[in-house]
Design a protein that fits this description.
The protein is mainly alpha-helical. It is built from 8 helices and 2 strands; from the N terminus they run ααααββαααα. The chain has a domain of about 140 residues: Cytochrome Bc1 Complex, Chain D, domain 2. The longest helix has 29 residues. It is elongated, with a radius of gyration of 25 Å. It binds heme C (HEC).
Amino acid sequence: MESEVKLAAGAMVTLALATAALVVMPYIQVRDIPKPPALKPYTDAQLRGRDVYVSNGCVYCHSQQPRTREFGPDFERGWGRASVPGDYFFDKPHLLGSMRTGPDLFNIGARQPSKDWQLGHLFQPRAYTPGSNMPAYPFLFYIKDAAEPGEEVLNLPPGYAPSGKVVVPRPEALDLVTYLIGMDHTYPILPPLPEPEAQDANKPEAGVGGSDATPKAEAGRPAEVPPKSESVSKPDPKPQS
Ligand code: HEC
């Protein structure tokens, strides 16, 4: 009997430790991350395009997380600086991905901003990258005899357009490409918070965990408060003359 109690207690402790290490601590680490000032929210078209990205399984072959130099030569591959948690501020759910059958797409909008290229590449990747093993997505396009007024026709490399027909992107393809071209995280990220000593003086306990949540709200949002104009207008406490 005694050993059964020990077994159950050991199992509970193990589970509690695992939950703390894998769920609670990561949550506390990233919940108050501010958004980089240059990061813009998704537009409606980009959000629709993001759904097309998810439903077509792009994430199974493409990551969205350039890594640091210690992990690999992502920067040398032209995929951009290593991503930081704030870059994913508007990503719910995130699409980090873990497979890299194709290149990382975190900065594809900066690398390949041509709408024509992106649309044509979705219609037939091998028309642009010979030997590519990315699947073609012809069902995101209409193949018609002639375009109707106002419709854009794809300019495919010679030999890839269906003969006597025109290829016109469906709204899903246009939204997806709007999402891809919007994927540009090349802005500079925030430097580390200034003057950590001054902050420590105000908050005796480091604000990690615990139930006294009052000082945390301030700590999490340093970037949203523009302190400059305020502090300039305040009278200097020191006597000046
Ligand atoms: C089976 C794996 C696979 C899937 C699924 C896949 N891709 Fe790709 N993708 C690749 C490979 C491999 C390449 C590199 C060769 C090329 O350019 O075609 C690539 C290249 C790309 C590029 C060009 C990247 C660059 O740096 O030039 C874009 C953009 C892209 N894919 C978008 C998508 C989108 C959007 C989807 C979903 C609709 C998707 N891919 C689905 C494998 C895949």
